[in-house]
Each structure stands twice: as C-alpha cells, then as structure tokens.
Amino acid sequence: MKLEDLLSEAKEILKTSGVHNYKFEAEYILSQILCKDRLSLHLDFNEELPLEDVFEVLDTVDIRATDKIPVQYIFGQANFYGRNFKVDKNVLIPRPETELLVEKVIEISKKFSNPRILEIGSGSGAAAITVALENQNALVTSVDISSKAIEISKVNQEKYGSNVVFSVSDLFSNVTGTYDIIFSNPPYISEEEYKTLSDEVKKEPKSALIAKDNGLYFYNKIVELASAYKEKDSYLIFEIGSEQGKDVRALLSDYKFVSCIKDYNKHDRIIIATN
Question: Could you state, in chain order, the average pLDDT of each consecutive group of 10 residues for the chain (275 residues)?
C-alpha cells in the first residue's frame, strides 16, 4: 500500500469514529510508526510501505478509534514546549494552554537573580522541567499528591537533566522554605462539567481534572495556604478554566495587583497575583 492511501484510510477511520482532530492525529500516528516528520509524510506520498508497517498503523488507528485512548498514551509521550515528555494514564496530558502558564512563569522568574519557584501539581513534570531548563538560575521545586506522577516526573527529569526537586506532597504538606513564585495548574473542572467531556479526556486521571466547589476548591486552598510559603515580593500564578476568571480573582482580594491573561482563543486562562 502507498503511504498516501494509508494516510487517507487512517483519516477516514478516525473521522468516522468521531475523532475531532482526525487529520492531525492520523498524520501523528503515521509519523510515529514510520519515523517520518509530517513534511516527509507528504513528500513520500508515493512510497510503497512494508506490510508490517501498514498493519501496525491500522492496528494503532483502530485502538485510537475504538477504545478512545489518546494518542499520547498510545505512544507514551506528549510534546510540550518543543520537547517530548513521557506520559501514561497516571498523569494528565500537558496542553498547549499550559505552555502559556510556563511562558509567564519563565518571564517573571527573570526578574530575580536566583528565583526560588514552587509548582503545586507536578503531573508529568513537563512544566517544572521546562521552567528549570529555560531559566538555569532558577531553583525549582515541584510537588504532587500522586507518587505515580512523581515517578513519571523523575523519568522526565533524568531525560533532560534538569535540577528540579520533585517530591510527594498534598499541596503544601511536605513543602518547606519560601518562594518567589508559586504556580499551579490544579484540577479545576466541576463534577457537572466532567459529565460533558469527551471519552478521550475521561481516559485521563479523574483526580487531575475534577475539583469540588464548582472547580474552585484547589485555588481556594492554595491561596489560603500560600502566604506561609511566599517571599515578600512574590507571585502567585494560576492556570484557570475559561469561565473562572471572575471567581478566582475574588479569591485573591488580599493581593494588590491581580491580572488575567487570555489564551490564544481569547479565553481567560492565566491569573497572576502579586503584592
């Protein structure tokens, strides 16, 4: 079978099964299995593929279409900020929106000579590791309640050689010291909103998605507890749900300066608070 024909068939299978971004995902599956970048896929349209590659592609497409498993879990990696990070079913798949959070943390961190930075909610470790790699003067600590998430984070840390200190902690329960920046992309989806999510998203760990109090529980707890761990002129930075700007701002009434930054789709996405 020619590459072009296989790609067309993969797209059709994914489209028929209701995969929203079927064109990209078909190309991603082929690029991973055939070890080609997306440009090469199109340049090599007329290439005749070995039968074993054809079967592997179609088997993978079937898993994606039938079982609704995200491609990042199928291949065990997700791209974030230009780097590939190991992921599995124990960690949330890093999103492009979180790259905006990381960009702001990096930008603000460069106001300090040797910033001490704390992340609440490590997940795969992608955010903390990226901050540490992009600002090598930063001293980054990252905590997560999930020991399995911390295991994945440490695998990614070893791959990229960052200096992040990862540890298991329920919010601040195992945190010591004070920090110039505390940032978090906590669970912020309400129970009601969770019911509306796609089957693919529901394959991700529920505990990393859902929060009580209409999605505001972890923002409230972090704001409540953070004061004991902040330096004098420090920053608290959150990623938020697109409809949560007003509510999260209200939790930050003790801060003198609170700003809200929109994402690429013009939705409220990042809250930055400082005294």
Answer: 96 95 95 93 93 97 96 96 97 96 98 97 98 98 98 98 97 98 97 94 96 97 97 96 94 94 94 94
The domains located in the chain, with CATH, are 3-67 (1.10.8), 91-274 (3.40.50.150)
Give the residue among 104, 137, 123 at the shortest CA–CA distance from 209: 123
Residue 142, burial from CB neighbour count under 10 angstroms (0-12, 13-18, 19+) = buried
Which of 79, 71, 76, 106 minimizes the C-alpha distance to 91? Answer: 76
- State phi, psi for 140 to the nearest 5 degrees: -110, 130
Question: 3-state DSSP call for residue 174?
Answer: coil
Kindly tell me the sign of the dihedral angle through the C-alpha atoms of 68, 71, 76, 78. negative
The owner of tokens 């090599």 is 44
Which of these, 30, 29, 24, 13, lies nearest to 65 by C-alpha position?
13
Category of 2 on φ-ψ map: left (φ > 0), alpha (ψ -120 to 50) or beta: beta
